[in-house]
Amino acid sequence: MARRPRSSGSLDPRAQSILRAVIDEYVTTATPVGSNALVERYGFGVSSATVRNILADLEASGLLTHPHTSAGRIPTDAGYRYFVESIVDSVILPPVEQLMIRHQFGQVQHASEQWFRLAATTLAAANRTAGLATAAKPRSAHVRRIDVVSISERLASLIIVFREGALRQVLVTLAGPTEQGDLTRAAVVLDELMTGRTSADAERALARIDGTGPIGGLVQHLGERVLAAVRDYDSAVIEEVFSDGLLHVMAEPEFERSDKLRRVFAALENRAYLGQLFDSIAGTNRVQVFIGAENGPEEMNDVSLVLASYGEPGRAVGVVGVLGPTRMAYPQAIGTVRFVSGLMNELVAHIHA
């Protein structure tokens, strides 16, 4: 689980400005920042000696550090955390960027299966990082439609479409040779029986079905497979993670060794860690940032995640966000994630209207 550090205390306005300047410079250049560069570029109105003293104080506070081979400073995870806490609830995406993103989503407003991919792509492009998105998922899914298609005499494909937009396809072995006509009749019965129901409700309805006779037995057999598939879907906190922009992250100097980034995405793709984070952010209506070593898995100690939930708690909830090096442009990332999360809220509300 992500670990959050304690606050490093308050800084006076000048120290805050210098800390932010170091972060801005380091995010842009990826090289340690010296006092002369800060004085030249930011015009603090004080000498290099004064800036050096403040940098030393910030380092003593654990907010900055310096590589052994350089006199310049770089932010620590705690330094990024201090900065993020000062902006996370106030930064807003510029209106022109909001308009551009809204226009992109307007092109696929009636194709919910594309929203998640578009969210990941949009976040990746806007931040030059990896964009992440999960489909809005309920704790208890509702069946919308059931189809059964014959593959051979003894094998059929059971297709379950959920009201929340997901789809499950299951191969079913049949007790004996079965024609498509019988499968279609059984699917009609199941469709009437289970549409709009959760697994618990569908189980009770299925128990009232007469399981005798060719069609009754087939309905019972297929119905049990539907229940198993719905329960399996419900048990996964996160069904699938859509990602885009991996090349953006690979281009950063922190990830010249591609094996480091492979381990990061392996940690995400098994969905266990993202599932833990999901429980902590779902329904909070707040952008949350997990920086470097705040992330639980060791392989994720060099990256930051900026995440927000979207959807309707109790009905269907998903996550959108970005992943990049800790040397990330946090204001842009937070503003974009907040806006895309709000936009996804609107889309999910449209589905359930």
Task: Provide a quick synopsis of the model.
The protein has 353 residues and is α+β, with helices and mostly antiparallel strands. It is 49% helix and 18% strand.
Strand order in space, largest sheet: 7-3-10-9-8
Stretches where pLDDT is under 50 for at least 5 consecutive residues are none
Strand content: 15-25%
Pattern of helices and strands: HHHEEHHHEEEEHHHEHHHEEEH
Structure class: alpha+beta
| Rg from Cα | 26 Å
Q: In percent, how helical is the residue content?
A: 40-55%
Number of strands: 10
Please describe the biggest sheet, giving its number of strands, its sense, and whether it closes into a barrel: 5 strands, antiparallel
Q: Gap between N and C termini, in Å? A: 35 Å
Task: Describe the global form.
Answer: elongated
> With helices defined by DSSP (H or I, 4 residues minimum), what is the helix count?
13
Could you report the average pLDDT, rounded to the nearest whole number? Answer: 86
